[in-house]
Design brief:
Number of domains: 2
Largest sheet: 2 strands, antiparallel
Number of helices: 5
Radius of gyration: 20 Å
Structural class: mainly alpha
Order of helices and strands: EEHHHHH
Helix content: 25-40%
Shape: elongated
Mean pLDDT: 81
Low-confidence stretches: none
Strand order of the largest sheet: 1-2
Strand content: under 5%
Distance between the termini: 25 Å
Length: 125
């Protein structure tokens, strides 16, 4: 996949796409026409919708297109099971810090801290 999306070029031989050397295509056009999710993927600290929308910046706020992309990618049924659906953030930015607070001394504060920093885990779903 990394060769087909030109993240890497082959060290020998060549890759043909429609009988043309893949190097003849503009990288931007190849990447616009494809979507890949490798085992070493990167999630940005954004919602699932925003992570999907990053694949086509001109449609970043097009919910219908993002939903269709999730369906075509096979992720839509999993996303529907999440409490916040497409608005779920799998990897939140740490937004709060606490020091010297415990569940015993500040239970309300600690509950709010945990709510803010909770991430969704979709492994095994």
């Amino acid at each position: 996949m990394k060769l087909l999306t030109r993240l890497y070029d082959p060290s020998s031989g060549k890759i043909l796409l429609d009988n043309r050397d893949i190097k003849d295509y503009q990288i931007a056009h190849l990447r616009q026409a494809t979507a890949t999710l490798t085992q070493d993927h990167l999630l940005f600290p954004l919602s699932l919708a925003e992570n999907i929308g990053l694949g086509c910046l001109s449609s970043l706020s097009d919910t219908a297109m993002i939903t269709q992309s999730a369906k075509l990618g096979g992720a839509y049924n999993l996303i529907r099971k999440l409490d916040k659906g497409l608005e779920t953030n799998l990897k939140p930015v740490q937004t709060t810090y606490q020091h010297n607070a415990t569940h015993e001394t500040h239970p309300t504060l600690m509950a709010e801290y945990e709510r803010l920093e909770k991430s969704a885990d979709v492994s095994g779903m």
